[in-house]
Amino acid sequence: MLIQIAWRNVWRNKTRSLVIIVAVILGLWGGIFSDAFMQGMAKQQIYSGIHTETGHIQLNDPGFLLNHDMQMHIDHADSITSSIKKMPEVKAVSSVIQLTAMASTATSSAGIMVNAIDTVDQAQVSDVSKLLIEGDYFKDDHNNLAVIGQQLADKLKLKLHSRIVLTLQTMTGDIIYGAFKVEGIYRTHNSDFDQQMLYIRKNDLLSLTGFPVGSASIITVLLNKDSDTKNVADVLTKQFSTLEVQRWEQLSPMQQVLSSTMTQMTIIFVGIILIALAFGIINTMLMAVMDRTREIGMLLSIGMQPSKVFGMIVMETVFLSLTGAIMGVLISISTIYWFGKTGINLSMIAEGANAMGYSSIVYPTLSADFYLELAMMVIVIAVIAGLFPARKAIRLKPADAVRGD
Amino acid sequence: MKKLLFIPLLSIFFSYSTTNAQTDATDIVRKANELMTGRSSESTSSMTVVRPAWTRNVEMKTWSLGNDYYMVQITAPAQDKGQVFLKRFNEMWNWIPTISRIIKIPPSMMGQNWMGSDFTNNDLVKANSIVDDYTHKILGNETLEGYDCFKIELTPKPDAAVVWEKIITWIAKDKYFMLKSEFYDEDGELVLMETQSDIRHFDDRDIPAKVVMTPVKETGKQTILEFKQLKFNMSLNADFFSQQNMKNLR
Amino acid sequence: MKQLSILAWRNLWRNRRRTLITLGSVLMAVVLAIAIRSLQKGVYSNMIGNAVRFSTGYIQVHAKGYWDDQTISNSFMANADVEKSILQDQNISSYVPRLESFALASSGPHTKAVGVVGIDAMKEDKMNGLSGKIVQGKYFIEPRDQGILIGDGLAKYLQLNLGDTIVLLGQGYHGSTAAGQYPIQGIFHYPLDQLNNNMVFLSLPDAQLLFSAQGRLTSISIMLNQPNKITSTKNILQNNLDSTYEVMEWPVMNKALVQEIQGDNAGGIIMLAILYVVVAFGVFGTILMMTMERKKEFAVMIAIGMRRFKLTFIVVLETIFIGWMGIASGSLLILPVLIYFHQHPLLLTGAAAEAYQKFGIEPIMPASLDPSIFLYQGIIVLCIAIVSAFYPLWYINRFPVAETLKD
């Protein structure tokens, strides 16, 4: 009975109800979408860190990272690589020989890090192969090709097919020179990385330096799921006790600072948006009740119990917010789905963000339980927001109310 | 076949075949290179580094054996006196008497200027490459400073670890003085110019006593090397170029 | 005009409750927009402040040409004039003179290229708390301390302990040889491997002696009291110094940080936009309801002969009044809150706090009091309010008077 009256009341004044429903929809959408956006942004930063720089897990000789000493290499890296590849959680594995070197051209020189790679394996582990702004990624069969970052290219004034001379150390400590040709130029979101990291084929380096065949400096592991990182790292630590096994968080601590800041900011921002939503709903509801003073006064004066009036108004609020919540969730799902596909290009909003490369595109994403949680929260807020006006309504003196303002 | 046009202008040393013409160009460069080094050599020289805001003079003694052994002792200024640089093949060490240490120069420091000059450590270590790392081609004849010169183009061999796109050098006929060399980058722009002048008689031969390096694109910079004494083909052997001997040089 | 304004003003207070509700929605909009932006900006300035503290400072004075060619030969003579110009400026909170170059660090068979920084121990410690990073041994006590401070990564690589001797070899001023040996007096640890593995500190006089650069500096890094006045401080300083000096702002020197913040800020702007959508509808909703409620009132006004355009004008004025009052009261309301959170910043917790502390950054989220925040957010909210007033305008100009009166 009460439910029916409430339901009818909702549709009696369509404009008013619509305003409230839209307020709920927008509030819910704002909460969900901003959360999804922030998560997308955090995820994307972590993703680009993992997929261009570190991988999920790295293995190396315990002393290696101190000075990239080539003597501290992983023996039998090839067999280790193929055994890690067999683990079900593992998506790809690549072994890299990493050496400090000097790159020179006719006009200048720079200290760099040479990464000698198996081109196919490395392309599966790192997205650098997809981030080329010019040229190709080891497509040509020629010897001594190099793929370099844009920052280094600018610094040394290198162009595609330019000649670059690398000064390296051999295993016996002699200095050796190698001439390479720039085959591709990449750009990641990290300009320091682009200045440091130069890629060449493993075979070219082996013949120059006499680095033992089958060995490597670093083994990079990419997993199917981020969440497996710790488990797999633990397994690898046990299995290869002579090696240092590090997770991506350990390899790039700055990343962790960024993503944890992001999480905290998300909580605060979503909180602020929820406050905004609550206020929007309370305001519209208050207006609605004022609008209905006469009507409520009438109901009270013809003898309707105040508790019933209270219940009716709360019920109305529940209907309104339920409708709004359902539609809000639907709209949120579809906008997140849409932007999750197309991405939001931040470079259009902030000038200079396009300098970050592909990572300026954010793909909003949210797990299902978040929808539910937020929807519940919004309904609770809406109902609480509805209680204020309802309380206000039953406190009206029927006589005054009927007389109007 | 254009190449052949130049050949008749050259003397009887050159045959009419292209391969031979190339070999002969290589021969000229080799001879020019050998003129300056000999089998072994010992020299006293001074180096002046000219910068827009300052100049600096370094005096030194140098010993060399072929292209693979090289030792430099700094004799002035007082501050750097007694320092020794040793090169054996591709490696380089530095003895610093003030702290009594020998330090091996790592690859990452090879691009550093040597003693603040326009030479890098690399230039010293890799001095031999103009013969072996390039293919040589005679472009023609030109007269320079009163000498009849071959104008020769040096193009790096495909796998040679050389930064230049090409070098054009003027070598005096018969005398083999490398009077002028121009170093070009990949855009075909002139980056570095080396001139040799002031022909003097040292020991058994005439050679240019003054070498000037000019980084063309940087105004006001120059490095001038002047030989004061020079002896060739003395009895030096590889043992002389040892870390032990760095400390004992007088 | 004046009459209409008075009429509009009176209208507002005729139905106080209604006005207060609308005012409340505008107030809340401005409060939230300012709060969110202030927090965003506060976090960035905290990040910037901490980042520049260890590197370039907010602004840096160096010899002209040094930035493009960072060699010791592009250093400058430290003189009293420069220091005087710096001390004169009220906005400058601290400054550190440095002589920076690089050298080979060597011990036995191990050799590594490192950055060498000659520092004024007291000033450096005041600016970035370097002494707190020492994990073994001790920080420089006297200005002429003879020892060297090295990172624990470098110590490990060179297999050196406290008290051992490290040899530095490099190139000094005007191409002279720089060679020296120093006892390790302290070992520091930063969470960034780059610093741990590649950096050593000497006292300024020692570094000057090593590089034959007596009395010379490569840079003076400066911290500011009010970082938002950076450009004017820089200009004043540049004017006071002659043209052999160059004064640079951190964004020119630290492009990576600028990029990072711009990227992050783009995300912040999206969040802000979402907030605007939500609050804009809050404002619009209340104004819409208000209009509906006043349907009869409007009809009566028009029926007794008020021109529709005059009525429109009054409603616009009412909205502007409400907008202004909302913004003014909102700003006043949030200001003490921001001042509080500026002085007692929100603390980060958990993993984030740990990560911050590892980097020597205070784990806080301070509020920014940058006046431009109030200005911009005020303007935006006012725009929202005015746009929201379009509905009543449109409504006034089309609704049928007779029918409404009959209702």
The helix fraction of chain C, in percent, is: 55-70%
**Can you give the mean pLDDT of chain C?**
84
Q: Which whole number gives the mean pLDDT of chain A?
A: 81
Q: What is the β-strand count of chain C? A: 14
Number of strands of chain A: 12
Helix content of chain A: 55-70%
Summarize the topology:
The complex is a heterotrimer of chains A (405), B (250) and C (407).
Chain A: H1 2-12, H2 14-54, E1 57-60, H3 64-67, H4 77-85, E2 90-104, E3 109-117, H5 119-125, E4 132-135, E5 145-149, H6 150-155, E6 163-169, E7 175-186, H7 191-196, E8 197-201, H8 202-209, E9 218-223, H9 229-239, E10 244-247, H10 248-251, H11 253-291, H12 293-301, H13 306-342, E11 344-345, E12 361-362, H14 368-395, H15 398-403
Parallel strand pairs in A: 3-8, 5-7
Antiparallel strand pairs in A: 1-9, 1-10, 2-3, 2-6, 2-9, 4-7, 5-8, 6-7, 11-12
Chain B: H1 2-6, H2 18-37, E1 40-50, E2 55-65, E3 69-76, E4 84-88, E5 91-96, E6 101-104, H3 121-125, H4 129-132, E7 134-144, E8 147-156, E9 166-172, E10 178-184, E11 190-202, E12 205-215, E13 222-232, H5 243-248
Antiparallel strand pairs in B: 1-2, 1-13, 2-3, 3-4, 4-5, 5-6, 7-8, 8-9, 9-10, 10-11, 11-12, 12-13
Chain C: H1 2-14, H2 16-54, E1 59-63, E2 76-77, H3 80-88, E3 92-107, E4 110-119, H4 121-128, E5 134-137, E6 148-151, H5 152-158, E7 165-171, E8 177-188, H6 193-198, E9 199-203, H7 204-210, E10 216-217, E11 219-224, H8 230-240, E12 245-249, H9 250-253, H10 255-293, H11 295-303, H12 308-343, E13 346-347, H13 350-358, E14 364-365, H14 371-388, H15 390-396, H16 401-406
